[in-house]
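To: structure subgroup
Subject: Chain for Friday's discussion

All,

I'm putting the inputs and outputs inline so they're searchable in the archive.
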Amino acid sequence: MSLLARLIEAGTPADLVAEVAMALARAEAAQEAIESRRAKDRERQQRKREGDNVMSRDTADVTTDTPFPAPPNENNLTPPTHTPVNKTRARKETPFPDDWEPILTPAAQQVVDGWPPGMFQRQLASFRDHAADKGRKSKDWQAAFRTWINKADEWKPKNGTTNRTSSIDRRSSLARAIDEGIEFLG
């Protein structure tokens, strides 16, 4: 029994049965269109496969090697096979400018706003010294400084702790671990 017949038997209102019938018709038409496209694709693929395996009689006796290539002229020039590259000039790397001043993006400013007082000036001085000391060159010094800021923020001490452990702290940690290991074994 079809879906429409069951809906009618169940006493479904006529307008709802009509909507379901239209939806079914649209779905069936869409399915037929899909099947038609698939059939055409299969036929095209089959023709392509058959064409790849059969050599044309017209090309069977023709050799592709020519003893002397034709000199270029306006009749035998081939069009380029690629899109020409935009001839914009690439920026050259430049040494760190003496008069350089940072320009912070909103994201970089947000990072800097979270720093304790004086840290931005220390990081700026470190950046300048590093660039000058190492003879660095960059295509974009503003981007280089934003990277410096982000790295400095990643390495920034959290909750008042330091990222470096003194040799005394390491020694006491090592001694504590040895003592605990001896207690565990003993």
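Points worth raising on Friday:
The mean pLDDT is 77.
The first strand starts at residue 94 and ends at 95.

D.
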